[in-house]
Amino acid sequence: MGIQIKDIETGNATIMIGEQGQPITDVQKDQAFNSLEKSGALLLRGFDVDLGSFSEFVGKMCSKVTLDPARTFFESNVQKVDAGTAPVGLHTENSNTPFPPDLVFFYCRKAASNGSQTTLCDGQVVWRFLSDDTRSLFRDHQLRISRNISEPHWKEYVAFETEGLNSADEVTMEHFEAFRHRVPNQKIELQDDMSIFYSLDAPGARKSLVSKQWAFANSIMGPSYNYEKPLITFDNDQAISDEILEEIRVVTEAVTKEVQWQDGDVVMIDNTRVMHGRREITDTNRELFIGLGYL
Ligand SMILES: [Fe+2]
After folding, report:
1. Ligand 1: distance of its center to the CA of 271 in Å?
2. Which of 83, 90, 147, 155 could be a cystine partner for 168, CB 3.0 to 4.6 Å?
3. Is the Cβ–Cβ distance between 84 and 62 less than 8 Å?
């Protein structure tokens, strides 16, 4: 059985179409990455897929998975994507945290009857349209992301990122110190109320790990559901000016495309290059799952 690769742009994605009944796990890693290198995102349509085979597919494409979509759904449901129904601004996944994933996967088990499209914005295209001055700023400076995180939230995060720990209750100050030392580009201050204030330096633009080309990829315009909204400046503490924010808004809006989900669609995204977001959810029956991993 063959896999058809259509050179049609939907969103910024190349469409890879499976023959009827063909398992999604038939897709080979080099096939997927050839398309990902070209387009930054890949839409896999018409394959036979369920939560189990989606999970297997994510595992096949990544050297390390940061969360198993099947497990998290069945055990805690935390990674079913649907944080509210409001539109979500463009962002790269978890890029305001120390270990953002390189790859993001979505599986649409049930498509919405209307609205609720996922948005895709190719940071490589954005990069070409930005002014020379803005490109220089983002090439010369990283972003500085600062915010306060409550004790339960940081303990949960440290537990998740520390091998051998299963829950926030097990996190000790030694784990906290070990975590702190793992991230040299981050400053963390423990507060009297046991919350932390952290400031993390992370790129706002970078060379994609897949295409090796410069891309504007960050979460300046993104949401913050689980944590306090961060303050984002350049790494010399200079504010990102209103003019630059407006330029970014205009350019990203002009190149943003939508994924019109169909049941069983899977999308694979280069998270070091392509930003994603969401239009307003107008049909809450939609079911979307996320998988995250590293190259
Ligand atoms: Fe996201």
Report:
1. 10
2. 155
3. no
The whole-angstrom separation of Cα 93 and Cα 275 is 8
Distance 192 CA to ligand 1 centre (A): 32
Residues 13 and 104 in one domain: yes
Domain that holds residue 181: 151-188
CA 104 to ligand 1 centroid distance, Å: 8
Total structural domains in the chain? 2
Question: Is there a domain that residue 107 lies in?
Answer: yes
pLDDT tens for the chain, 295 residues: list them: 567 766 555 556 677 777 778 999 999 999 999 999 999 999 999 999 998 899 899 999 999 888 655 445 543 333 566 567 888 899 999 888 888 999 999 999 999 888 888 999 999 999 999 999 999 999 999 999 999 988 988 888 888 888 888 888 999 999 999 998 888 888 999 999 999 999 999 999 999 999 999 999 999 998 766 677 889 999 999 999 999 999 999 999 999 999 989 999 999 999 999 999 998 888 888 888 889 999 9
- Does a structural domain hold residue 158? yes
How far apart are alpha carbons 33 and 292 in whole angstroms? 16
Residue 48 DSSP code: B
Q: Tell me, in angstroms, the distance from the centre of ligand 1 to residue 227's CA.
A: 14
Ligand 1 centre to CA of 84 (Å) is 13
Measured in Å, residue 91 CA sits from the centre of ligand 1 at 6
Residue 188's DSSP bridge partners are: 198
CA–centroid distance, residue 274 to ligand 1 (Å): 11
Ion ligand 1 neighbours, Cβ < 5 Å? 93
Closest CA to 195 of 163, 228, 162: 228
Supply 135's token pair. 């490109």
Could you tell me the distance, in angstroms and rounded to a whole number, from the CA of residue 295 to the centre of ligand 1? 18
Q: Which two tokens stand for residue 92?
A: 């790269």
Check whether residue 76 and residue 175 sit in a common domain: no
